[in-house]
Amino acid sequence: MCGIAGVIYKDKTKKNSAKFNAAANLSKHRGPDHTGLFGNACMDFVHYRLSILDLDERSNQPFSPDGNSVLIYNGEIYNFKELAEKYKLSLQTTSDTEVLYLLLQEKDFQLRELNGILHLAIMIKSNKP
Questions:
Q1: What's the pLDDT score for residue 125?
Q2: Distance CA 30, CA 100 (A)
Q3: Is residue 2 annotated as a catalytic residue, yes or no?
Q4: In the prediction, which pLDDT does 128 show?
Q5: What pLDDT is recorded for position 123?
Q6: Which one, of 61, 103, 59, 65, lies nearest residue 81 by Cα?
């Protein structure tokens, strides 16, 4: 099973990425295939990947193909191929991660359509101050 962890800092002046990284290393054993970090002024995320279905490095996480939003996800979506077909998604990888990322941007998609086991963290970049 992969490992994910994250912190959102209410007070940006108290952000401590070094402390977060030290604590996050406690879960490193959960994903020996890749370690991905994402951080900005108010949050830090880490994803430890255990590759099972999709071994392509383009599916590594944090997943952010456009740089506008970030998905960190763990689990399996059993019906991701069917959902990709239903919503006519244009895919660059063979991962359920990319399918989930694109589905979350679909206006008509609802989470209850997913058949699987998962937990996720999403950060969507806002143009609002």
A1: 58
A2: 21
A3: yes
A4: 45
A5: 67
A6: 103
For 26, how many CA atoms within 13 A lie in the half-sphere containing its CB? 7
Active-site option among 2, 46, 70, 84: 2
Long-range Cβ contact pairs of 48-54 (< 8 A, separation 24 or more): 48/2, 48/3, 48/4, 49/2, 50/1, 50/2, 52/76, 53/95, 53/96, 54/93, 54/94, 54/95, 54/96, 54/97
This prediction's pTM: 0.78
CB atoms inside a 10 Å sphere around CB 16: 12
- What are the 10-residue block averages of pLDDT along the chain, 129 residues in total? 81 86 81 81 84 75 79 89 97 90 92 90 58
Q: Give a three-class secondary structure readout of the chain.
A: CCEEEEEECCCHHHCCHHHHHHHHHHHHHHCCCEEEEEEECCEEEEEEECCCCCCCHHHCCCECCCCCEEEEEEEEECCHHHHHHHCCCCCCCCCHHHHHHHHCCCCCCCHHHCCEEEEEEEEECCCCC
